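Issue: copy button drops trailing tokens. Both records pasted manually instead:
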Amino acid sequence: MKKSISRIIGLTMLIIAIVFIMFALNHPEKSFPWSNTITWLLYGVYFLVTVVLLIAPKIKK
């Protein structure tokens, strides 16, 4: 994957995460239909993928 594509995808994911957090803080009554363990696992995977996409282009081969 090209560096610019990786950065664009990573930044897009970061923006989506920020918008989601803002929505979640303003709507505490909303929830997911599954357990909190699955929710936190999904958050962790999303965060990990975002970090990898943002940092990977900076690593030299």
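Record 2 (pasted manually too):
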Amino acid sequence: MNTSDAVQAIKNRALALNGQSAVVNLVGGQTLTGTLTYATIAGQWGTTYPDALTVTVTSKAHVVRIDHVSSIGQG
């Protein structure tokens, strides 16, 4: 799997878990567990997948770049 395929797979997984409790594993070993927020943006030339997601942990929102995510699981 090349890098762009891996990034798109993370985006698809984030979209599937939008609004749910999730475990987001970051490159470097850190983990965030909380409510995941990620949604596509409908535009004039099609759908855009943002390059960041948000994980809300105990009322604090953490914005994470997709390329810093190694995996996302249901939490």
